[in-house]
TrEMBL record:
Keyword terms: Hydrolase
Signal peptide, first to last residue: none
Organism whose genome encodes this protein: Brasilonema sennae CENA114
Positions with biased composition (Basic and acidic residues): 8-18
Family indicated by similarity: Belongs to the 'GDXG' lipolytic enzyme family.
Superkingdom of the organism of origin: Bacteria
The name this protein goes by in its record: Esterase
Chain positions covered by the region annotation Disordered: 1-25
One Pfam family in the UniProt entry: Abhydrolase_3
SUPFAM superfamilies with a match to the protein in the record: alpha/beta-Hydrolases (SSF53474)
Molecular functions (GO terms): triacylglycerol lipase activity
Hydrolase as UniProt keyword: yes
Ranges where the Alpha/beta hydrolase fold-3 domain occurs: 49-251
């Protein structure tokens, strides 16, 4: 399932995440970026979640990920915007980051007082890059600082230096080093892979808000979480990495099938509510 030619099949798989009861979906645009709003019943005013989807920067769509984002929205009672950021190879770096920043600024311009950033896989890495940028802008310009971030199986190192890429290759039924290498080359288009703007593992951790991470032991990106969390801890960031035994890449998407998925979504909701409550 690698490359842009597999986008349709990839989206079909992502849409198998069950639709959350009580969520309505609405096409929208935030900061000039198209996407899908996931509205729970009686959403809390002044609060929003910006969701950045996975797909290794070459696949995925807001429409396909609306069910997973909706599962978060209904559990937090927060309207969630899934950004349809541009994909490589048609739009390599920095297109995805530019769209993520524009969507965040758009939420601020709409008067949103508390914003949490959530993402999975490549979108998880993008979320952590955006988190650092938004926090820096808030300190420098007095903009709205992100309240928190939650990432699932984040891709934090596009240089692909994690040992789990090899050590857990036989355990991961979804990703391989070869697939990630092709996707990285497509997105980077010659750009340096250890630039903090593409690989948050090498970025700034100064004054970051609280971060919660979920990852499985049966995935090649396990070390992308472990190393990011270790660096964040060293910089005194409030980060908690939940490592789930035997779980695969972005396993919370299997809610309704895996007990661990339901448990993880519950932990995500509890965390986000605690960080976005008045």
């Amino acid at each position: 399932m690698s490359g842009s030619d597999a986008r349709g099949a990839f989206d079909e798989i992502q849409e198998k995440t069950p639709d959350a009861s009580g969520v309505s979906y609405e096409q929208g645009t935030v900061g000039g970026v198209p996407g899908v709003w996931c509205h729970p019943q009686n959403p809390r005013p002044g609060v929003a979640i910006l969701y950045l989807h996975g797909g290794a920067y070459v696949q995925g769509s807001a429409h396909a990920y609306r069910h997973l984002a909706g599962q978060v929205a209904v559990r937090t009672s927060v309207s969630t915007f899934v950004a349809d950021y541009r994909l490589a190879p048609e739009h390599p770096f920095p297109a995805a980051l530019d769209d993520a920043k524009a969507a965040y600024r758009g939420l601020v311009e709409q008067g949103t007082q508390k914003i949490a950033i959530v993402g999975d896989s490549a979108g998880g890495g993008l979320a952590l890059v955006l988190l650092a940028i938004a926090q820096s802008d808030a300190l420098a310009r007095g903009s709205v600082a992100p309240s928190a971030a939650v990432v699932m199986s984040p891709w934090t190192d596009l240089a692909l230096t994690g040992l789990s890429l090899q050590d857990h290759a036989d355990d991961d039924p979804l990703l391989t080093r070869e697939v990630l290498s092709m996707a990285s080359a497509s997105y980077l288009n010659g750009h340096e892979p250890n630039d903090p703007l593409v690989s948050p593992l090498y970025g700034s951790f100064t004054d970051l808000p609280s971060i919660q991470i979920h990852v499985g032991t049966s995935e090649v990106l396990l070390d992308d979480t472990r190393r990011y969390a270790k660096r964040a801890h060293a910089e005194e960031v409030d980060v908690t990495a939940h490592v789930w035994e035997g779980m695969t890449h972005v396993f919370p998407g299997n809610v309704g099938t895996l007990n661990a998925a339901e448990a993880a979504l519950g932990m995500i909701a509890t965390f986000l509510k605690s960080k976005t409550n008045p």
